Structures are given as structure tokens and as C-alpha cells.
Target: Radical SAM domain protein
Amino acid sequence: MIEIKKIQNVDLDYLTYLLSTDEHNEEIFKVADEVRRKYVGTEVHLRAIIEFSNYCSQHCLYCGLRAENRNLNRYRMTEEEILERARLIAKLGIKTIVLQSGEDPYYTTERISYLITEIKKLDVAITLSIGERDFEEYKIWKELGADRYLMRHETASPELYAKLHPGDSFENRKAHLFELKRLGYETGAGCMVGLPGQTPYDMALDLAFLKELDADMIGIGPFIPNPDTPLANQGGGTLKDTLKMVALARIVVPTANIPATTALGSIDPFGRQMGLKCGANVIMPNLTPNPYRPNYSLYPGKICLFEKDTACVECTKAMIKGVGLVVGEGYGYRRKINIEEYKITAVGD
Model:
């Protein structure tokens, strides 16, 4: 039997042990599924992504959008193109729109403010996923109605973070995430699994950080090496290890919204379905319009690049129903419960 209290209390030695062996995987997955059902129910929320720019000023070693990549066809969507896409998403009945891009200074405070103001008229929640910006910008956008901010921390190992992000530090990323939390955003973090040099202890640190932040959203996906990056020849993260991290994150932060990520579906045809069975409760269909969608190439082999919008949404809904869950119809805000309700002692509690 796994010791659930040690997981919830982020006992680093115990988490490192669980992440070092496959002996307890099935039990971990079963507990995570029950925790999800108990604390967030059977609804799976849809968050539609608009990847509006693949320009990026950063140099992250793992990312296909990195500034040094000269093999990428760069694009920027106009404000009207973004708004047209947002209107379509609202018409399809999806209640959250995710505005995602590289760290692109072309989209100024004013441009993002305009987008937030116009999109909020569609009666949807807005998630921003545009990287590190000035603290004052976060404040302005929150006051205009932005609901959530997703900024994955990627790794909570300060040494590994520094290696992968030239000129940046984990402490700086933490400062941004805690400021977003202070301002009242539903704040999302998350990590990659299988990064070069990553150890089970490093992944245990990720879980401890997610609990420290009390992350409202947790995005966990496998590292997939991109041929146009310095890590092109490294091995990638496995489905098994990624599912285990998703499951442990569910136990550590029971009420968080956790997506079954596109990257999971990119390394296995049934990766997202398995993610939903291991504690995930969000799917993020990609509704970036073509011809832009294939050029947001964080990693190779990304799924759902050429599907028609309506077909993509219907496919996603069918996937959710196919694993016995329910398509959420609301905004999907994080459920608030008393911390005392977090107590889980055994499977079936």
C-alpha cells in the first residue's frame, strides 16, 4: 500500500522513491482517479487555445520557439484575427479561451488589454499564457477581467532550471508565479518530465513546489526533443513517468485543474485518455487557425494540426465521454473547499 499521507505532505524522500520505481504505479493511478472524482467530480473542462504568435525573445534550450531557431516560419496574428477566432470559440459553446504565445513584446500592454476587453464581452473566462511580463501589466490585465494565468515552471531544480533557461533563474519564475497568485489570478504552473539530467528527486521538488504555490492549474507533459534545438539528440520523457507525475500532482493538490496535455497525446495515441484516467480533468483543444497552427512547433509530432475546428471539438467531447466522464459546460473555475477536506487515507475513502 502506498502511504497517501506522505504524498500529501510532500515527503521528498518518499516521493523520490515512488518516482524511482514502477512497483506502485497502478495503485497511484487508482488513488489519483478516486481523488479526482471526490474533489473535482466527473466533469472535464474544455479550454480552447489560440496560439497567436510564435515569436519569442527567450533562449530556452528545449523549445522550438526559441529566438535562435532560424528554421521556423514566424507569424503574428492580428488583433482582429484573434477576436474572430475567439468569437468562433464562444459560438462553439466553450467557456474558456486561452491566449498563448511566445514571449513576444510586439503585443504591448495596450494590445493585450484591448483583446481582454473585447473577449470578455463574449461571456467567457480568459487564460493568459504569454510568459514573464512586468508585474504592473499583470495587475492591469487582472483588473480588466483576465481570469487565469498559465506559466509553467518547467523544473523546480534551480540548477537544472538555470541550465535550460540561459540568463534566467527559478527564483525569478517563482516570484512571477507568486505575484500572479497575490493578484487573484487562478495561477497555473507545471513541469516537463524526462528533461536531460532530471532525477526523480528533481521531480519530487516539482510536486513540492506545486503544493507550496497551491497551484490552481497544473500542466505536466513529457519532454519531446525538438530537432531545431540544442537538445535535439536527447531522449524524451515517457508516457508512464508523465502519467505518474499527473497522478501524484492530483493527490498533492486535490482540487487543481489538471489538463491531459496535447504532448501526452503526441507520444501515445491514447495518451490523453490515459491522463484522464490518472487524475486529469481538463482538455485543451487547439483552435489556432490555419495556416498558423503547424508553425507553433514547440516540439515535433504535435497532434491535431490540420483538423477542422468543429470536428476537433466534437472529437474531444467524444474522447471525454469515451472514458466515462462528462463534458463540462461551465467556466471551470477551481473548486474551493476547506483544507480539512483534503484528508485522504486510503483508496475508497
The longest helix spans residues 25-39. The longest strand covers residues 48-53. The mean pLDDT is 96.
